[in-house]
Amino acid sequence: MRISLLGVIVLALATAAGCGQPSPRPQAARPSAAPQQILPQQSPQEAVVGKPAPDFSFTTLDGKAIKLSDLKGKPVVVNFWASWCHFCAQEAPDLEAAYNQYKSQGLQMLGVGADPNDPPDALKKKVAELKITYPVGPGADAAKAYGVTGFPTTFFVDSKGVLVSQLVGARPKAQLDAEVKKIL
User: Fold this and answer.
1) What is the distance between the alpha carbons of residues 35 and 168, in angstroms, rounded to a whole number?
2) In whole angstroms, what is the distance from residue 18 CA to residue 26 CA?
3) What is the total count of domains within the chain?
4) What pTM was computed for the model?
5) Could you read off the pLDDT of 85-139 as tens digits, one per residue?
6) Domain with 72 in it: what CATH number?
7) Which ranges in 103-183 belong to alpha helices (H)?
C-alpha cells in the first residue's frame, strides 16, 4: 500500500509539472522567470545574435507561403511554440498585444509551430482559442534550423535581417516590448 500511494504521489507531481503534452518530453533546467518545454535531440544552434537570421519558409494555416527573407526591410518577431504547451498559451496574449501595438510601425510577427508531431488541426484550434491574428503555421524544419530546444522561444530580427535577440521561455509583455523596441 505504501508503494502504490508513493507512486500515485509521484505521478501526480509529474503530471502537474508537465505542460499537458500528448507524449512524454524531457524537461530542462528552467530559467528563473521562464519555464520551458524541451524537444528531444535538436541540432546545434545555428541562429546567432548579431548575425543574419537563418532564412526559412513555411505555409500558414490559411495556406499563405511565407519566407523570412521576403520580409527583409521590416522588423520581425518569430515565435516558436506548440499547441500543447501551457507556457506558450500563457505568453500568447502578450505576443498578440505586442503585435497589435507595433504593427502600425511595420512589425511583422510569425507564429511557427515547432513540434513536428503537432498536427495542423491542433494548431488551428489553439490559434482560434487564443485569438491569434498574426500569421501562424507549422514549421518544425525552421525550428531545427534555429536550434530551438524549448517552448516558447522567440527571436527578434531587425529590418536588415540581423538576429538582434532571443528569449527562451514565456516572458511578460514588458520584456517583449523592450525587445521589440530594439528592432523597430
Assistant:
1) 8
2) 10
3) 1
4) 0.78
5) 999 999 999 999 999 999 999 999 999 999 999 999 999 999 999 999 999 999 9
6) 3.40.30.10
7) 120-130, 140-145, 173-183
